Amino acid sequence: MKLLITSDSHGLTSEVALLKQRHEEEVIGSIHCGDSELPFDAPEMEGYYRVAGNCDFDRAYPEVEQLTVDDLPILITHGHLYGVKSSLRSLEQLAMEKDAKIVCYGHSHVARADVINSRLYINPGSIRLPKQSPHPTYCMLSYEDKIATVRFYTMDGKEVQELEKSVTFS
Fold it and tell me: 142-151 burial by CB neighbour count: b if 16+ within 10 A, else e?
């Protein structure tokens, strides 16, 4: 099982569509963690599980989305309502309340993955305005034999190996 995860595209259209097209044969779904700045029903957003960011004004976007893939509960939010730029504590609380094992978020534009209390927190960074990285990034989540692995990529498809993170779920 693989999922494409992106965030903070801030008005980009061809790049959002390109990512989905590039990986459509290998993923079972795509996630956008907010701040697309596109209408909810924009053609580029079709097929994405998507949430509202602080720069998304279409009220059709939910604040939080939950899905289960291969018995793996996943939570998606932008993060601005949970103070993710300073701490993941509020997001941890939400993850515990929703019983999520994977949490996908954005907002900070910083590509990172953290394992906290046996949960995997994934921020794919930004494909428009990256911070703490010279390159725009997105990521891919794979899940097999109870092991979740997140790998990060630049927009030209080059893997950023130092950001890779794995966690085993019992």
Answer: ebeeeebbbb
24: left (phi over 0), alpha (psi -120 to 50) or beta: alpha
Q: What is the DSSP letter of 161?
A: G
Q: What is the dihedral of CA 34, 101, 142, 145, to 10 degrees?
A: -170
Tens-digit pLDDT profile for the chain (170 aa)? 999 999 999 999 999 999 999 999 999 999 999 999 999 999 999 999 999 999 999 999 999 999 999 999 999 999 999 999 999 999 999 999 999 999 999 999 999 999 999 999 999 999 999 999 999 999 999 999 999 999 999 999 999 999 999 999 98
**137 φ/ψ angles, rounded to the nearest 5 degrees:** -135, 160
Q: What percent of the chain is helix, strand and coil (3-state, nearest 5)?
A: 15, 35, 50
User: What was the pLDDT predicted at 170?
Assistant: 83
The count of structural domains within the chain is: 1
Whether the Cβ atoms of residue 17 and residue 152 lie closer than 8 Å to each other: no
Using alpha carbons only, give the angle 164, 153, 38 rounded to the nearest 5 degrees. 120
For residue 74, the domain's CATH number is 3.60.21.10
> What's the DSSP call for residue 94?
H
